[in-house]
Amino acid sequence: MANKNAFLFADETTRFYFPWIFLLMVFIGTLLCGSGLFVYNCLNRWQQGVSESLTIQINTYDDNGVFRAEAVNEDIEKALSIIRTTPGVREANVLDENQMGELMAPWIGADVNLMDLPLPKLIDVAIDPKNPPFLEQLKMDLSIQVPNASLDSHRIWLTQLVKLSHRILQLIGIILILIIFTVVFTVSYTTRASLKIQEPIIRLVHMMGAKDFYITTKYAWRSLKRSLIGGFLGFCCAAPILVALIYCFEGMSDSIFTTGIYMEQWLFLAGYPLLMSFIAFITTFKSVLGYLKRFI
Amino acid sequence: MTPNESISPVIAEFNGVSFRYKIGTDVLKDLHFSLAPGSFHFLTGESGAGKTSLLSLLYMDHLPTKGRVRLFGQTVDSLKRSEKAQIRRQIGVVFQDYRLLNHLNAFDNVALPLRIIGEKESDIRKHVTELLAWVGLEKQMRAYPEELSGGEQQRVAIARAVIHKPSLLLADEPTGNVDDAMAQRLLYLFLELNKLGTTIVVATHNEGLIQKFGFPRLHLHGGQVHLTIPRNSDISKLTKGEKNGQ
Question: Which of A1, A59, B141, B166 has the most CB atoms within 10 Å of its CB?
């Protein structure tokens, strides 16, 4: 005896394409979603980092290129006293040579003697992100009392990076929407192709008194089942690639790509094939219901 | 609704019904007739006279282009889709071309109407096995339509049409591909159903069967229907209109 639910579905070629289409769509979608989350996490981390710190540079050479020697230490003391009395500042420390070396290593290498370079002295300032200092006032105080000091809130370079990240996220969003449209179109098209093939059978069961809902749900459940299989496989293919990509990025630099994807975000990603399958279910349901209207 | 529960005064009623396909002239013109519950009619006429069209109006595969068709007391035009489905469940149809599903075996083909109405699988197994045995196909239950002869396919189609004990059975040339003995056997099956209250319309060219069983004849000619009541017909089963010779 055949499967009691199989009567609507004679052999048809669309059954082979359907899971493959979903595998591909979910694979691409998961990679994009995962990349988007990774960028989003990095962006948050960068913004959080900026809101928690400032850097003050004190020039070690004057305008004529002469080393200022002891004047630098005076400037550092003055700057520290201004900063430490500013409301909203938690901590301020001068970076020593080792810290400077680590900071510069990615650009100039680890073996260079920093004393040979005209590098400024840097003061790392930790601020309270909930109650940050008034930066304009701080800048003004520094410019009056320590003319060789300048305040860097990191916002100039970060603004560009944030803009770029936002563009990347927007692009990912657009591609994800396009994927959804593609899924809707593909499901709708394959369903209609299947219905066309099965029309004599549908006409027969319709004539026997099968209600629209009965026929529609049979198709929609089948569509859901196939899309879940394809989606699950697509996710299983994409997840390891995503992990490998994140691992590669984290290996590139230990300062800006260390966030990865959080556990709850992985769960969100796992929901992506479910969302796509749900879209397939609804699209199939609506396509079949629309098609059945041609029968009296 | 089982045949005996039918409360409608007539099973089907045609009032000024005309029908044409998208292209062409009227196949059926201004038909007025009705089918009483428990009646048995032969539907005759030359090829192309409109027998299949008339049957298709009865199972709502088409709607009339003019006039009104009432089934089980309800006007077809005004029915919701779900109500039409409910009415179709009271109708059994034997198609001229059988319309068996080639990917299902004989058992599953016959079980189809019961599965659509949600019958329990255990009941389906029992009823389908009994009926297939009755039409002489107990050994071909697992055979697919392509493995069956024309006559066997026709018997499967008939079994499928009657498995759910319909209130109205419409048969389009149901004996076209079987020998006389089997044709009579199938007609006796229809007769048994008719005795249980099923209204039956059999489109046929088989004059021998018409003469032998002697039921009223709806004859289609020139798009019009003409009722002929044989002398030995059981007049108590005919509608008022038929008694008046309409």
Answer: B166
Tokens of A71: 């004047």
Q: Collapsing DSSP states into helix, strand and coil, what is residue A36?
A: helix
In a domain, A111, yes or no: yes
In this structure, are A167 and A281 located in the same domain? yes
Q: Percentage of chain A surpassing pLDDT 90?
A: 28
CB pairs under 8 A between A and B: 66
Amino acid at A235: F
Residues of A in contact with B145 (CB under 8 A): none
Q: Which residues in chain B are closer than 8 Å to A296, comparing Cβ atoms?
A: 60-63, 84
Q: A93 φ, ψ to 5°?
A: -135, 140
Q: Which of A147, A177, A208 is the last residue of a domain?
A: A147
pLDDT of residue B237: 46
* Domain span at A194: 9-48+158-292
Residue A254 DSSP SS3: coil
The number of distinct structural domains making up chain A is 2
**Average of pLDDT values for A76-105?**
84
Is residue A2 a part of any domain in this protein?
Answer: no
Q: Which residues of A touch B64 (CB under 8 A)?
A: none
Residue B57 lies in a domain: yes
Q: Contact B104/A212, CB-based, under 8 Å?
A: no
Q: Which residue of B has its CA nearest to A209?
A: B85
Min Cα–Cα distance to chain B from A13, Å: 15
Of A11, A203, A209, the CB nearest to B117: A209
d(CA B96, CA B62): 17
Whose CA is closest to A276, among A28, A9, A12?
A28
Q: Which of A108, A127, A147 is the last residue of a domain?
A: A147
Specify whether B144 is located in the same domain as B210: no
Q: Find, in chain A, the residue whose alpha carbon is nearest to that of B166.
A: A208
ipTM of model? 0.83
Residue A152 lies in a domain: no
List, for residues A134-193, the tens digit of each pLDDT value: 878 888 888 888 888 888 776 667 778 888 888 988 999 999 999 999 999 989 988 888
Does residue B20 share a domain with residue B75? yes
The alpha-carbon gap from A198 to the nearest alpha carbon of chain B, in Å, equals 10
Residues B178 and B132 in one domain: no
Q: Answer yes or no: do B235 and B184 share one domain.
A: yes
CA distance A1 to chain B (A): 7
- Residue B159's pLDDT is 92
Which residues from B are below 8 Å from A when comparing CB atoms? 59-63, 81-82, 84-91, 93, 99, 101-105, 107-108, 111-113, 115-117, 121, 142
| Domain coverage including residue B131 | 100-165
Element (H, E) at B202: strand B199-203
Which H or E run contains B93?
Answer: strand B91-94
User: What tens digit of pLDDT does each residue of B194-240 get?
Assistant: 988 899 999 998 888 888 888 999 999 888 888 888 765 544 444 43
* Structural domains of chain B, count: 2
Q: Which residues of B touch A201 (CB under 8 A)?
A: 101
Looking at the structure, tell me whether residues A86 and A192 fall in a common domain: no
Q: Comparing C-alpha atoms, which of A276, A249, A254, A294 is closest to residue A37?
A: A249
